[in-house]
Amino acid sequence: MIDKILIAFKSIGKNKNRNFLTMLGIIIGIACVIAILAVGDGFTKTMTKGMGTHNDKGRVTISFQASSYDDTTSGFTQNDVSTLEKVSGVDHVKLDSSNTEANAKIQYKTKHESTSLNKSPKHLNLYKGVGTSIDNSDMSNIFISHDLASRIFKDESALNKPLIIEGNVFIIRGIYNISDFNYRPDIYVSKDVFKQLFANQITQDIARIYVKPDVNKKSVGKRAVDQMKKFGEDKQMGHYEVSNPDQISKTFTKMLNYVTYFVALVAGISLLIAGIGVMNVMYITVSERRKEIGIRRAFGATSSDIRSQFLIESVVLCVIGGLIGILCGYGLVAIINAFLPFKAIVTGYSLAISLSVSTAVGLIFGFIPSNKAAKSPLVGLLKEE
Amino acid sequence: MLKINNVGKSYGPFKVLKDIDLEVADGEFLAIMGPSGSGKSTLINILGLLDQDYTGEYLLNDKSYKDTSDNLLSRIRGDQLGFVFQNFKLLTTYNVYENIEVPLVYSKTEQHNKHERVEDVIEKVGLSGKEKHRPSELSGGQQQRVAIARAIVNRPKLIIADEPTGALDSKTSTEIMDIFTKLNQDGTTIIMVTHDEEVAKYAMRTVYIRDGKLYHDAKDVFKND
Ligand SMILES: Nc1ncnc2c1ncn2[C@@H]1O[C@H](COP(=O)(O)OP(=O)(O)O)[C@@H](O)[C@H]1O
Ligand SMILES: [Mg+2]
Fold first, then answer.
1. Residue-level pLDDT at A250
2. What is the pLDDT of residue A54?
3. Of A108, A226, B149, B196, which is most buried with the most CB atoms under 10 A?
4. Residues 6+ apart with CB under 8 A from B194
């Protein structure tokens, strides 16, 4: 076996340039495979590590997901809290909300609209107007987004204009920009106004269950969800599940998935192209070496010896490409790490996968040419010069 | 050593070999002569188990290999036969040592014996010191010595040589024939194709092929004309 691998190395060495070009596709493909797996592994590791050290110690969170997006009222009720507190292992339960934003109907002159609304943050950079926040001293002050301003007021200046929100009159004191990176609602009101008019809109869709000491959080969470499925007041409106407190925001996960799919696509395509390249180069090799095949067959090589010789050559070619690809993959991971909020890591498992994939490409795409070499009639081969 | 009865071969309607009978005894040195295109290579390809597509009967050491599997035929070629082809047929990208080693790759010879075997035959054909040379760095005579060394490295009982001196001058031919004679004296059966009378003289016996028919005596070759 070792001498056969040496023969393969020798034959590949005879045509370095051609073979390097063939390897290029494998190099790119495997580098992508390494990168995908590194990002995936890094992501998982960050998540699991986060779970261990999270300040969520001693409590488990279950969330309610409404089946309809329009449904803003269903969630956990005080009765649900009592139900949950009866579950064994539960110490006490607090309700919370994943969504702090409200919806409001607004009106200016004859224009009506429904927009998102929230209490003012402590600090906001205004695009027009003065101040950085709305305090409770003047409850009629609001800030609105530039988008909303241009929708409602068109070319007029919106500053200091009145705006009717749910029947109450407010005065626009400032206009802010919304960037793509920083989500904001369309209207900010003071804290007190939000509490009085809109807090009831905020559904309590999260129940934080504090467990008794030395109780398994996981099983408590499971029992709690089971209870809610049976007795939850809004069980018809959606479903309950144990939520992972360390979940990185959905958009990020989604983005990561898209990147992964894209890179996987690149990896798949380059490996396919690489495979076809390998097949091509093996066909060329086989037809160039008909004389060699004839000689070997005359001196005792069986057709399976010939097949395995070319298969080994094809696999060695791909594995060399795979090894270079792994090195490039490390480089790629280093570059990716400059942009990721967590650290992508190359594991031994992903090295094994990469080598298996390269071997598989060599075997699959080398098979037909190797078979052709093995099956050529001997007398014809020996006529070659 | 071998015996053929009524062997024929056709390419479509064209009969290359017609009803050939031939017997070769152990230890014999047989020359096959004939003009080019007469079917000499075709015949020895059959004798060398390289071509199974023929009619009639062929017994090698009293055994027919007509229905033998391709794998077993390969093994028998590797273990019992040694080929010296027209135009040397060396691997141009391999050096002398590696060329001679080829038959050992497929034989059951112990790894540690292989090196010894190769060095042994290199010495036998007078190429000591040339192990690392490529065929292109050697003269025609030296290349043919490599081919002979490769043919005998597995210690075959039968050597089949197709025009071994075809590409060589007469002085070099003599040197090559001396090697063959020596091998024959050591007990190896040799069947050699040639169209050179001088070279055929080294053989114990000569047969003639013309238009696919085999003649055991030179007198008979033109009898039917
Ligand atoms: N594959 C083939 N198809 C058709 N004819 C062939 C083939 N191989 C050899 N021949 C013909 O068979 C005849 C004998 O060939 P060969 O045995 O090589 O002759 P020699 O070795 O005596 O010069 C030649 O006429 C040649 O043209
Ligand atoms: Mg010939």
1. 59
2. 45
3. B149
4. B31, B32, B33, B163, B164, B165, B166, B200
B93, closest residue in chain A (CA to CA): A14
Q: Among B74, B73, B76, B78, which Cα is nearest to B101's?
A: B78
- What ipTM goes with this model? 0.94
**Pocket of ligand 1, beta carbon within 6 A:** B 11, 16, 34, 36-42
Domain that holds residue B32: 27-52+68-219
Contacts of B5 (CB under 8 A, 6+ apart): B21, B56, B57, B58
**Which protein residue's CA is at the shortest distance from atom 5 of ligand 1?**
B11
pTM, entire model: 0.69
A384 Cα to the center of ligand 2, angstroms: 13
Could you tell me if A255 and A343 are in contact, meaning their C-beta atoms sit under 8 angstroms apart? Answer: no
Secondary structure, 3-state, B51-86:
CCCCEEEEEECCEECCCCCHHHHHHHHHHHEEEEEC
Assigned domain for B170 exists: yes
Here the CATH number for the domain that contains residue B97 is 3.40.50.300
The CA distance from B91 to the nearest CA of chain A, in Å, is: 6
What is the CA B29 to chain-centroid distance, rounded? 11
User: Token pair 């919106």 is at which residue?
Assistant: A158
With b meaning 16 or more CB within 10 Å and e meaning fewer, what string describes B132-162? eeebeebebbbbbbbbbbbbbbbebbbbbbb
Contact between chains at B74 and A291 (C-beta distance less than 8 A): no
| Amino acid found at A176 | Y
List the single residue in A11, A299, A303 with the smallest CB-CB distance to B102. A299
Assign A71 a pLDDT band (cuts: 50, 70, 90).
Answer: low
Q: How many structural domains does chain B have?
A: 1
Tokens 């500053």 locate to: A159
Residue A52: the pLDDT is: 44
What pLDDT, on the 0 to 100 scale, is given for residue A245?
Answer: 54
